[in-house]
Design brief:
alpha+beta, 5-stranded antiparallel beta sheet, 23% strand, 8 helices, 362 residues, 27% helix, Chorismate synthase, AroC fold
């Protein structure tokens, strides 16, 4: 099982949801970069459970410990290891799942692949694995503050089920997004989205939606022309996240309804002396490489698979028909906590390509 991401900036996550802890090892981080543990902790606090009335009630401090690779608050160039200990796991809630497959979870597929699985909270397939990604991304963000000042990544909840936010990617602020528990960029939809998620929780059900993300002030030329296109790497990064089902960039599927003349982004010289496009249906990427315009993409998240209702399933061995009712502590909607995770994977992709570009072309 591959748990490593990236080429120049390599991230390996480890740990299980109900084990002793989770964490990450980062290799390829440049030396002498100022690194703040407080910034890493702030990033983890945005992801952690129990932060509002519409997220899982699991209570975890998610306190980060840097074990290596940092000295006197600067990176040393050697592997950086970060640990977060698990404190509030309750494995007994999953006892029945030891012998039954949860519908739409990874239980059956883990058994099909390995013939063995950690059934406590989903093991490696739990969203708790993303702690390592978020911690590593904070390191990446701090490196990019040095290598690409002004570059910014910001994500928000675009939709919850049928509720679709109206957000301007060029002007939406982090303050607006972080100022509400849904993390949407549309103040008019905060209450309707919150009410819908609460309704799902009260009925033992769940709901999905879309997270939208923009990379502002990204330099042109990042990415590769063939297999490692930056949009392809973003797609793989996003679809590696738990509960994701679709990725689209720029005009996405809607672009199929346009003609070539309508869809093309004309070039003009900007007042800053740089080449720009007059619109951005390309989503900031052409030919697999960034063109200097904002990179804009969307990620679809399915409804949480664990619902508090009896569903048809089968036993693990031997396989016989049975039923299983969901138990444990779960988000009724992953979207609010998915926002910082989408941002995290974006920071990792961007830094990896920045370092590769510097290595290849100086």
């Amino acid at each position: 099982m591959s748990s490593t991401w990236g080429q120049a900036f390599r991230v390996t996550t480890w740990g299980e949801s109900h084990g002793g802890g989770v964490g990450v090892v980062i290799d390829g981080c440049p030396a002498r970069v100022p690194l703040s543990l407080d910034k890493i902790q702030a990033a983890l606090d945005r992801r952690r459970p129990g932060q509002s009335e519409i997220t899982t009630p699991r209570k975890e401090g998610d306190r980060a410990e840097i074990l290596s690779g940092v000295f006197e608050d600067r990176t040393t160039g050697t592997p950086i290891s970060i640990l977060v200990r698990n404190e509030d796991h309750r494995s007994e809630a999953y006892n029945e799942m030891a012998g039954k497959y949860r519908p739409s979870h990874a239980d059956y597929t883990y058994d099909a692949k390995y013939g063995f699985r950690d059934w406590r909270g989903g093991g490696r397939s739990s969203a708790r694995e993303t702690i390592g990604r978020v911690a590593a991304a904070s390191v990446a963000q701090q490196v990019l503050e040095v290598l690409a000042p002004g570059l910014d990544v910001i994500a928000w909840v675009k939709s919850v089920k049928h509720l679709n936010a109206s957000v301007d990617p060029l002007t939406v602020s982090r303050e607006t997004i972080e100022g509400n528990i849904v993390r949407t960029g549309d103040p008019a939809l905060v209450e309707p989205m919150t009410d819908l998620i609460k309704e799902m929780r009260s009925t033992g059900n769940s709901v999905g939606g879309v997270v939208e993300c923009v990379v502002r002030n990204c330099p042109a030329g990042l990415g590769e022309p063939v297999f490692d296109k930056i949009d392809a790497d973003l797609a793989k990064a996003m679809l590696s996240l738990p509960a994701t089902k679709a990725f689209e960039i720029g005009s996405g599927f809607a672009g199929t309804m346009l003609t070539g003349l309508e869809h093309n982004d004309p070039f003009r010289m900007g007042t800053d002396g740089q080449v720009h496009t007059t619109k951005n249906d390309s989503g900031g990427v052409q030919g697999g490489m960034s063109n200097g315009e904002p990179i804009l993409f969307r990620v679809a998240f399915k409804p949480v698979a664990t619902v508090m209702h009896a569903q048809d399933t089968v036993t693990s061995a031997p396989h016989t028909d049975t039923t299983l009712k969901g138990r444990g502590r779960h988000d009724p909607c992953v979207l609010p906590r998915a926002v910082p995770i989408v941002e995290a994977m974006t920071w990792l992709v961007i830094l990896d390509h920045v370092l590769r570009q510097r290595g290849q072309n100086g």
